[in-house]
């Protein structure tokens, strides 16, 4: 069975690339032949490059180069590059099964603007896949708590064609129920692999520094996150002369190295939290301000009984407690993740069916 996966592998985001890598690596370990469809929406890519040029920040291009090296070394991509949904319809037909996921591939903003403001694209809903091929959505995310009516009408015909759909967040389950589909909650692809698999791709930074506080904060105007970062640094690390990560252009392997080897992680990133759990590194999670995408962090930490690690306000008492608290029950965390990993692996295996099979039975739970 030859499997194609479709996701945001082209993004310059650590979590996006690592979840693409993890799903493919898992499928390879299971004995499947697999490729990532090299779909790079031209308009999105053009805008990204323009923003980098406008910023005149050489670090942005250093980071881009590091990401490209990682993709070239660690991802198996289709030989053809697809810049539009039309190209996918014309040429992307040489696989037995197609898996879309994970990440926010069903984000309505991308759906409506990826290939032009006047043209919606259903690429990540696999609308280009022939009727006789399997369509599977694994750990998909909508990036919102509720879909607008016009979006539901647009995507429903394609959703009904899937053999199996699973989601990453509880809000995703609620959205799928609006389509009369009971979508199971599965783990993010990054959690399908254990720590040993990531040790394979970790790279030690050139400076070989180990940061006492590894701070990874996404998005602009994150006042609370930066306020907490400054407080932790001043109260706990400044007098000791220890360093903390700010904004150096590091590669994916180096990013993993820092999370694994730091004393403490501060992040508003879902995958920053994921890899803190994988490497058993103490952390504080901060919700992204002005965002509808925080449910994924709450869902994950609720599963491992660590919602107390989420700081929603500048509460010095809570922050101090979490910094000093070193009694996270990592045995429980690891066992819970392994249990969910096994369950998610079985779900994915059942969705694909026996190797060499192209059965068309549906696994959607209506």
Characteristics of this structure?
single chain; 366 residues; alpha/beta; Rossmann fold; 6-stranded parallel beta sheet; 4-stranded parallel beta sheet; 14 helices; 10 strands; globular; transferase; transferase activity; Polysacch_pyruvyl_Trfase; Polysaccharide pyruvyl transferase family protein
Question: What's the short story on this structure?
Answer:
The chain is an alpha/beta fold. The protein has helices spanning 14-29, 42-55, 58-74, 85-91, 108-113, 149-159, 170-177, 195-199, 223-237, 252-261, 270-278, 295-303, 316-324, 330-352; strands spanning 2-6, 33-39, 77-82, 97-100, 134-140, 164-167, 213-216, 244-245, 264-267, 283-285.
Your description of this structure?
With 366 residues, the chain is α/β, with parallel strands linked by helices. The protein folds into two domains: 2-195 and 338-352, Rossmann fold; 202-336, Rossmann fold (3-Layer(aba) Sandwich). 43% of the residues lie in helices and 13% in strands. The chain has 14 helices and ten strands. It has helices at residues 14-29, 42-55, 58-74, 85-91, 108-113, 149-159, 170-177, 195-199, 223-237, 252-261, 270-278, 295-303, 316-324, 330-352, and strands at 2-6, 33-39, 77-82, 97-100, 134-140, 164-167, 213-216, 244-245, 264-267, 283-285. The strands form two sheets. A six-stranded parallel sheet has the order 3-2-1-4-5-6. The protein has a four-stranded parallel sheet with strand order 8-7-9-10, sandwiched between helices. Helix 5 links the parallel strand 4 (97-100) and strand 5 (134-140). The protein starts with a strand and ends in a 14-residue tail after the last helix. The model has no long low-confidence stretch (mean pLDDT 89).
């Amino acid at each position: 069975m030859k499997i194609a996966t479709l996701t945001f592998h082209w993004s310059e985001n650590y979590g996006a690339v690592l979840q693409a890598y993890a799903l493919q690596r898992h499928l390879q370990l299971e004995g499947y032949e697999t490729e990532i469809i090299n779909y790079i929406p031209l308009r999105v890519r053009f805008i990204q490059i323009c923003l980098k040029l406008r910023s005149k920040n050489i670090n942005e291009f250093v980071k881009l180069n590091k990401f490209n090296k990682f993709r070239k070394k660690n991802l198996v991509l289709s030989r053809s590059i697809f810049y539009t949904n039309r190209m996918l319809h014309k040429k992307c037909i040489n696989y037995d099964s197609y898996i879309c996921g994970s990440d926010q591939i069903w984000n309505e903003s991308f759906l409506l603007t990826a290939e032009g403001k006047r043209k919606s694209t259903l690429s990540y809903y696999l609308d280009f896949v022939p009727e006789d091929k399997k369509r599977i959505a694994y750990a998909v995310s909508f990036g919102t708590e509720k879909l607008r009516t016009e979006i539901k009408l647009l995507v429903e015909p394609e959703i009904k064609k899937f053999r199996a759909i699973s989601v990453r967040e509880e809000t995703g389950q609620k959205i799928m129920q609006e389509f009369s589909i009971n979508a199971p909650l599965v783990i993010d692809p990054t959690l399908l692999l254990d720590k040993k698999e990531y040790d394979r791709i970790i790279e030690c930074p050139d400076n070989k520094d180990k940061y006492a506080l590894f701070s990874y904060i996404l998005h602009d105007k994150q006042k609370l996150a930066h306020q907490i970062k400054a407080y932790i640094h001043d109260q706990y690390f400044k007098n000791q002369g220890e360093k903390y990560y700010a904004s150096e252009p590091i590669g994916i392997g180096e990013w993993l190295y820092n999370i694994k080897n730091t004393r403490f992680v501060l992040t508003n990133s879902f995958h920053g939290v994921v890899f803190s759990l994988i490497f058993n590194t103490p952390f504080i999670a901060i919700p992204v301000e002005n965002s509808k995408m925080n449910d994924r962090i709450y869902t994950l930490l609720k599963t491992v009984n660590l919602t107390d690690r989420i700081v929603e306000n500048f509460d010095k008492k809570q922050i101090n407690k979490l910094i000093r608290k070193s009694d996270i029950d990592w045995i429980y965390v690891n066992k819970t993740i392994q249990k969910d990993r096994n369950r998610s692996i079985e779900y994915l295996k059942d969705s694909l069916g026996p190797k060499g099979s192209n059965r068309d039975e549906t696994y959607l739970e209506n």
